[in-house]
Amino acid sequence: MNSEIMVVIIGGGVTGAGILWDLSLRGIKCTLIEKEDLCNGASGRNHGLLHSGGRYAVEDPESADECARENKILRQLAPWAIEPCGGLFIRLAGDSPEYTERWLAGCKAAQVATEPVALAAAYTYCPYLSDDVAEAYLVQDAAIDVYKLVRGLVIASRSLGANVMTRTEVIGFIFRGGRITGVRVRNTSSGFEEVIGCSLVINAAGAWAGKVAQMAGCRVKVAPDRGILLVFNARLASCVINRLRIPGDGDILVPSHNVSIFGTTSGITDTIDDQMVKRQEVEYLLAAGSELIPGMRDFRRLRAYAGVRPLLGSDDIADSRNITRTFKVFDHKEGDGVDGFISAVGGKFTTYRLMAEKTANLAAAKLGCNKPSFTGSTPIPAPEGTQQANASKSFYIFRKDSRREDRVRQLICDCEGVTDREILVAAISLPWLTLNELRNRSRFGMGTCQGTFCTYRVLGLLIEAGLIQSSEALGLLMDFLKERWKGALPVGSGEQLRETEFAHALYAYTMGLEFASGRMKGKEFTDATRPGL
Ligand SMILES: Cc1cc2nc3c(=O)[nH]c(=O)nc-3n(C[C@H](O)[C@H](O)[C@H](O)COP(=O)(O)OP(=O)(O)OC[C@H]3O[C@@H](n4cnc5c(N)ncnc54)[C@H](O)[C@@H]3O)c2cc1C
């Protein structure tokens, strides 16, 4: 057992990464353990909205207040992960004007800045809005690149000596007396098991936190709340669009890089892993969205995906929309008589820093460390190769002051403007190279063509750079295409369906992949993952 490690953090989402950064800044040695890749859970499957707090101003004032404060802090400390596009709250003629009054009062109380906007100006932010807009208010919403932020936190923590183990699942706990002294882990790729000793374990396993706590004989109530999102192939608005009414389904649009993300829904689920989206769910969201943007069905939809919010559970969950978006930190010594074990549950991506600070405060106190948190004032260094989130890609590529080594040879992903250098930098940082993980880190394949034209270029680049063997390329490609098509199937119609079928034809017939797949055990397309021609 490695007795040098002080704290083990379970979960490589934004909460785990935030705790890692906080404790590392206090000089506490930590190991973060993630069963898949970083952002495997809700942190990689959300809306990407850095909330102003407006959404929660009436029903959840505590969360509104937390969002408003954290929004300001994060803009200062990680500008490279944030596009400060602003947001609009739109009341349609049929929505209650009385609710607007309560909303304005709630925003004022939570110090969420609002500014009324003339109707004509609202249409300049989003020309596709309904003709029925009755009122519009500007707020400080922003779009956040969730993968970039989590990666930034992890890289910065590593530079301070933290250790990060991905593809490693915590499968049990080691006890001495009533105290946890280590975790048993299994490598999810090789199956290798080992024990990691520590003084304290922090459970930041999101929707899985209840299951993890149970392994230690403790009880944590999590309400796993499923939401689905649709990705459109263009920016339908230049700022975030929220509907000004009691928060409901299908009332937020977030412009993100070159696409727009629309959603979402809310409902308690029994299944946390492997979320598939159904066509009926897509139809339901489109119907809701068409009230705000009547032509929504005419825009090209690239894919749909689902995530599970790790909301704070309670004994009475009648409507998941009414569950607070705030968080709680549990010291299991008090509730369950198990020492050396803390769980952090609930919260939003926007409020991760505050949740991490509160968790780290408790951890530090238990370890006898009296250093305060520094995360509220310490800038998070941008990961290598990261430009300002709002800077135009073409400017980045061709700017005159580029250093020679920064210059790129070619664009690999035309839709999202991802260069060969960005792909290589991301690939080198991956301990276990898969195209899905590379996509999350670089954004290749996330745009209009969904990887049709860039995936094989990426493979060529990786082989040329000696990062993979040519014999591995086919397996990597098949896994990637399966995942892309899983998201494309529920939204397939019109132009996008034609493009999906074209992509399939290109890979399956021109490149002979279907033939190859027949020989690859476990890699075949199934009827559910392959669009028919
Ligand atoms: C549809 C949807 C939309 C959302 N939109 C927004 C938004 O716009 N703005 C916002 O602020 N918030 C949003 N949220 C909420 C936000 O995404 C979550 O609150 C946040 O990402 C939770 O982060 P986390 O690190 O606590 O959990 P997660 O990101 O779920 O991380 C938990 C991690 O633990 C790992 N893990 C689990 N068990 C083990 C184990 N035994 N061993 C090792 N690792 C393990 C998992 O693989 C996972 O990576 C949204 C959520 C959803 C689902």
UniProtKB/TrEMBL annotation:
Q: What Pfam families does UniProt report for this protein, alphabetically? A: DAO, Fer2_BFD
Q: Which GO terms describe its cellular component?
A: glycerol-3-phosphate dehydrogenase (FAD) complex; plasma membrane
Q: How does it sit in the bilayer?
A: Peripheral membrane protein
**Which stretches make up the BFD-like [2Fe-2S]-binding domain?**
411-463
Q: Which cofactor does it need?
A: FAD; FMN
Q: In which pathway does it act?
A: Polyol metabolism; glycerol degradation via glycerol kinase pathway; glycerone phosphate from sn-glycerol 3-phosphate (anaerobic route): step 1/1
Transmembrane ranges? none
Entry's Gene Ontology BP terms = glycerol catabolic process; glycerol-3-phosphate metabolic process
Q: Which subcellular locations apply to this protein?
A: Cell membrane
* NCBIfam families cross-referenced by the UniProt entry: glycerol3P_GlpA (TIGR03377), PRK11101.1 (NF008313)
Give the quaternary structure: Composed of a catalytic GlpA/B dimer and of membrane bound GlpC.
Similarity annotation: Belongs to the FAD-dependent glycerol-3-phosphate dehydrogenase family.
Q: What is the protein's given name? A: glycerol-3-phosphate dehydrogenase
